[in-house]
Design goal:
globular, mainly beta, 68 residues, 0% helix, four-stranded antiparallel β-sheet
Length: 68
C-alpha cells in the first residue's frame, strides 16, 4: 500500500528498501535503490545504486512514497 511522504523539509532525497519515486510528468515509478541504475521515461528522475543517489531535474514533478 502506497504511503506518500512529505518532502517539504527534506534535505536531499530519501533512499531505502521501500522507498519509490513517482514522476508526475511521465507517470513512471522509480525504485530509490535499484540494482544498478533506474530512471523514468522522460529522464526527470534517476537513481544510481553505486552512489546511493537520486537525481531529480524538475523538483515540482515528483512524489515520494513508501510501499511495504
Amino acid at each position: 500500500m502506497r504511503k506518500y511522504l512529505s518532502t517539504e523539509d527534506a534535505i536531499g532525497y530519501i533512499v531505502g528498501e521501500y522507498i519509490y519515486y513517482e514522476c508526475t510528468n511521465c507517470e513512471v515509478v522509480v525504485y530509490s535503490y535499484p540494482v544498478y541504475k533506474d530512471s523514468c521515461a522522460c529522464g526527470n528522475i534517476e537513481a544510481v545504486a553505486m552512489t546511493s543517489t537520486v537525481t531529480i531535474k524538475d523538483k515540482n514533478k515528483y512524489k515520494v512514497f513508501e510501499d511495504r
